[in-house]
Amino acid sequence: MGASALSRLVTVVIATRDRSSSLAITVDRLEALPEKPRIIVVDNASTVSAVGDLRHAHPDVEILELPTNVGGAARNVGARQARTPYVAFADDDSWWDPGALPAAVSVMRADPLTALVAARILVGPEAALDPTSALMARGPLDSAGRPRPDGRRSVIGFLACGALVHRARFLAAGGFDPQLLVGGEEEALWLNLASAGWRLVYAPEAVVRHHPYGAREPARRSRLQARNALMVGWRYLPAHLALRRTLAHVARIGRDPAGVGAFTDALRRLSWAWTGRSPISSSTVRALAAHASAS
Predict the structure, then answer these.
(1) Hey, which bits of the chain come out as E strands?
(2) Is the dihedral of CA 209, 210, 211, 213 positive or negative?
(3) How many other C-beta atoms are found inside a 10 Å radius of the C-beta of residue 9?
(4) Which of 12, 40, 62, 228 is placed for a possible disulfide with 184 were both Cys, Cβ 3.0 to 4.6 Å?
(5) What pLDDT, in 10s, does the model give residues 229-276?
(6) Cα gap 243→235, rounded to integer Å
(7) Looking at the whole model, is its pTM more than 0.85?
(8) Which has the closest alpha carbon to 227: 168, 287, 164, 270?
């Protein structure tokens, strides 16, 4: 697939906030790709400009600045702005390898029911396999645990920084929910896509590099991830599975300092889960069970 063909098919969307140095590295890497994808950067209301220098150094990059921080939902803004049939996401500390985007597009186009292709993510200079990628590699061959005709692994957990989506299907599913910010926000999207009948598959030949930014806040992120797991469970899971998830969280509170805060945060947003409650389809419940048994 030539550069001109790829650029007509894929836009890379980067959501960023207050990370100008790592963002510059990511954009440098993406602009150096032989496939020359279009790039859109969505700035999540940075407290200091994260994109000022970028405008001068990379005039071909489209930059959108948001007035408020909407977390992972900034990707939705970039996807709506894109005009290509597929959108690949990158964080401001991750990038796609040469050849990875064409590989992911080929997987997407091979199956008319696929809505998301998850890349293999290698972390840091040592290129360690991300634990989520390791889980995807062990996943069932389809959502019911049966062999798929193409031999691909279906996925339920993925990382947004290594995902290529079918743009129209992604937007129709609502994209990333702004209530979830950043930290496990992918689960709600997967549930919405799967319940709509779309497939999500793992493509290990498509490689994404992730060099985590040094100034992360692990305690805050852990709290958000726990909060989001509760919120998503209450909104989307059948009652017995939502209750099971809640009880498991309560049982861990004594060992997890963030547990009480996460539970309190989730309760404050109970109306979001209750008023928008949309239990997943029975086929998606079976997919969860298939993945649980495979892992």
Answers:
(1) 10-16, 38-43, 62-65, 86-91, 94-96, 114-123, 128-129, 153-154, 163-166, 199-210
(2) positive
(3) 21
(4) 228
(5) 999 999 999 999 999 999 999 998 878 877 899 999 999 999 999 999
(6) 12
(7) yes
(8) 270
